[in-house]
Amino acid sequence: MSRENFGSWPVAILAGGLATRLRPTTEKIPKALIIVAGQPFLAHQLRLLQGAGIRKVVLCVGYRGEMIEQEFGDGHNFGVELSYSFDGPKLLGTGGALKKALPLLGKHFLVLYGDSYLPIDYAAPAQAFIASRKLGLMTVFRNEGRWDASNVWFQDGVIKFYSKTERKSEMQHIDYGLGILDSTALAPWPDGKAFDLADVYRDLISRNELAGFEVKQRFYEIGSPEGLAELDAMLRSQQLSVTP
After folding, report:
1. Is there a cis peptide before residue 24, judged by omega within 30 degrees of 0?
2. pTM of the complete model beyond 0.90
3. Which of 180, 194, 204, 214 has a Cα at 20 to 30 A from 95?
4. Is 39 helix (H, G, I), strand (E, B) or coil?
5. What is the DSSP string of 184-236?
């Protein structure tokens, strides 16, 4: 797969959650519109993706998703084609939202958590996914409990176990926040039902259909007040470094 072909792959951003850890701020706005370094967080995400060569983004939205669409429109101001998939009256969870968005996503697509800022080469895991011939790929980072609870047992290039709740001593890595899926990976789940992307990953692991790709750059996130403050400081320092 060439880098030119990679640019045609869509990225699904999971931006439908309630963001309860960031209340009271998110009582009135969705997480994607939280101001970070002077701009809505989604603006930083889209610029990062556009700079990586990505041209199509599908936002999976639920809670106050209409506010995101009103702010960002079709994405032309950010050099991307932006589409929206709304959960509807009932939140569908990260997995259910992806299943509903499949008509906009096609055969292969990247999946990004709506609170993740990941400064990596996005084409590299996509190339690894194609080479693996598996139905899914999870990017992992050797976290060792530093920035959040490690939730992946990754050994000899293989994801052996993944859980958000169960802990094992072998878990030294963390789900980095970027995945790649073949649309058939979502086939076991019914339409219109709520389920988690973690369920999809665990099912793929049980069938030896989830590849692992280790990245070396640390992740940033706005899922917690601490993470939000850290990313804000990092982006502001970048802005200062490019100011004439």
Report:
1. yes
2. yes
3. 214
4. strand
5. GGGTTSPTT----HHHHHHHHHHTT-EEEEEE-SPPEE-SSHHHHHHHHHHHH
- For each of the chain's 244 residues, which pLDDT tens digit applies? 545 466 689 999 998 765 556 666 666 778 899 999 999 999 999 999 999 999 999 999 987 888 999 999 999 999 999 999 998 888 899 999 999 999 999 999 999 999 999 999 999 999 999 999 999 999 999 987 787 788 899 998 899 999 988 888 899 999 999 999 999 999 999 998 999 999 999 999 999 999 999 999 988 998 888 889 999 999 998 877 655 5
Instruction: In whole angstroms, give the CA distance from residue 107 to residue 96.
Output: 17
- Write b or e for each residue in 96-114: b if 16 or more Cβ atoms lie within 10 A of its Cβ, otherwise e: bbbbbbbebbeebbbbbbb
State the Cα–Cα distance between residues 171 and 84, nearest whole angstrom: 35
Q: Which residues of 204-217 are buried (b: 16+ CB within 10 A; e: fewer)?
A: bbeeebbbbbebee
CB 26: neighbour CB atoms within 10 A? 19
Whether the Cβ atoms of residue 117 and residue 220 lie closer than 8 Å to each other: yes
